[in-house]
């Protein structure tokens, strides 16, 4: 039985419907290349088939952690789904172009990286006083993550360990280990996540469909 993950925060992209539509189109294309049905993708990502359908049709938003699981299930990165398809022509990513996620938990998160960097994802987050990544620790992907505090004071729990980090402090952990971050200071805090995905076998065309025998039923 596949594990169904609990969602650490309820988040929606702070973008207009055109951006959600583009995300849906890219996700559908990636899913079809991977020869997955909406039900198969939903099972791999731990969400419902109806949610995948709504996402592909630009009808709903999605949190960072859920989008990571969906992207991994179809063999692409979050940056592949959110960023411009021709980044080499525009190497500078302007502040107003960054995909933004907000949450009811007092966290506003921005994606800083985009293709052609495919194994690295960088996010910047602003935590309101008491803001957190969610009420419970969560796990995602199979990657190495570095959490770096820019301003304020954060408490981060990794498995059974808890650390208090101040400006310029950082901690590293595997993203598959449950973790949670919360702003314990009296002012808003800013932090950066640097996620390095484990390098998969070399594939000259990573968006191509895998051999039929490798597809899980």
Describe this structure in words.
The protein is α+β, with helices and mostly antiparallel strands. It has helices spanning 17-33, 38-45, 49-56, 64-74, 78-82, and strands spanning 11-13, 100-103, 107-111, 120-127, 143-151, 154-158, 161-165, 170-174, 179-183, 189-197. The strands form 2 sheets. Strands 1-2-3-4-10-5-8 form a 7-stranded antiparallel sheet, with no helix packed on it. Strands 7-6-9 form a 3-stranded antiparallel sheet, with no helix packed on it. A hairpin with a 3-residue loop joins β2 (100-103) and β3. α2 packs across α3 and α2 crosses α4 (64-74). The chain is globular. The protein starts with 10 loop residues before the first strand and ends in a 20-residue tail after the last strand. Residues 1-14, 86-90 and 200-217 have low confidence and may be disordered.
């Amino acid at each position: 039985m596949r594990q169904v993950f609990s969602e650490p925060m309820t988040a929606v992209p702070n973008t207009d419907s055109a951006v959600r539509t583009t995300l849906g189109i890219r996700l559908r294309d990636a899913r079809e290349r991977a020869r997955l049905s909406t039900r198969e993708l939903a099972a791999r990502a731990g969400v419902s088939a109806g949610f995948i359908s709504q996402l592909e049709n630009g009808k709903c938003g999605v949190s960072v952690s859920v989008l990571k699981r969906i992207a991994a299930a179809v063999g692409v990165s979050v940056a592949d789904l959110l960023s411009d398809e021709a980044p080499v022509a525009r190497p500078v990513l302007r502040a107003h172009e960054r995909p933004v996620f907000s949450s009811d938990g007092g966290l506003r998160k921005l994606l800083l990286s985009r293709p052609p960097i495919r194994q690295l994802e960088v996010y910047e987050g602003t935590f309101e006083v008491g803001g957190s990544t969610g009420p419970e620790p969560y796990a995602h992907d199979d990657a190495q993550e570095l959490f770096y505090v820019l301003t304020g004071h954060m408490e981060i729990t990794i498995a059974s360990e808890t650390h208090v980090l101040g400006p310029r402090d950082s901690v590293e952990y595997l993203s598959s280990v449950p973790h949670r971050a919360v702003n314990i200071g009296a002012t808003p805090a800013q932090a950066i996540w640097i996620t390095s995905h484990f390098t998969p076998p070399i594939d000259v065309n990573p968006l191509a469909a895998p051999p039929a025998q490798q597809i899980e039923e």
